[in-house]
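Q: Got a minute? One more chain.
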Amino acid sequence: MRWIKQLTTKNIGEQTEQLAAQHLREQGLNCLTCNFSSKYGEIDIIAQDGEVLVFVEVKYRKQANYGGAIAAISAAKQQKLKLCASFYLQQAQLNEYNTPCRFDVVALQGPIEQPNVTWLKNAF
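A: Always. Here it is, folded:
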């Protein structure tokens, strides 16, 4: 009997974050860290785009139901990401007022084996 590995939500999340990081590297970004965690939440990818520090949220949806991957990032989630980014800047001893930053979204949609990738710069 042939066993088929069932992908868990965690496996899918890890895979999509790896695909997103690869996509960002192909676009010239330097991925500094993945899955930065604090008491405020988690940032999927922190990257450098020239002089700009980029905080990236990765979202995957198999189908576009209910607005797809991009619509899954609520105002509350955005606020958590901003707090987490501020915490990261403090930990890295960077001045949040003098460090150019932006929040991007990498949305993946479709079959996990080959999803469509959409990169939204300055998403919020």
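A: The mean pLDDT is 90.
Q: Perfect, thanks.
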